[in-house]
Amino acid sequence: QVELVESGGGLVQAGGSLSLSCTASRSIFSMDAMGWYRQAPGKQRELVAVVTTDGSTNVAESVKGRFTISGDGARHTVFLQMNSLKPEDTAVYFCYAETPALFGSRSYWGQGTRVTVSS
Question: Any bridge partners for residue 101, and if so which?
């Protein structure tokens, strides 16, 4: 079982920056993958940025060059640095973790943190 606690959302003007944090209840190195998804009003949840244990990252085209995912193993925490924010980045951001399971993998989600970008 993994618990994920996000923090760092809020209201920011377009062009501004925010940093999100997600702290896991166990080592991030025990995860197959960890990262962030987001869900805007009326839209499906979409991948923002995910990093896997082999160090590879998968970043949405819409945020490439603006958002950076990083981790701190000692603090069991993954970060999402969001720069040059746009109104279309407004969404609830969810931390995501994937762990090995007996038959495949198991997914975990945080409670979500809201990011609002005003124009």
Answer: 104
CA distance 51 to 68: 11
DSSP 119: -
Q: Token digits for 40?
A: 């805007």
Q: Report how far residue 13's alpha carbon sits from residue 103's, in angstroms, rounded to the nearest whole number.
A: 45
φ/ψ of residue 88, rounded to 5: -75, -5
CA distances from 68 to 28, 99, 102 (A): 17, 22, 32
Q: How far apart are CA 78 and CA 54, in angstroms?
A: 15
For residue range 4-56, what is the model confidence (pLDDT) as tens digits? 999 999 999 999 999 999 999 988 888 899 999 999 999 999 999 999 988 89
Beta strands 10-13 and 67-72, pairing class = unpaired
Four-point Cα dihedral 53, 49, 96, 41, nearest 10:
-170
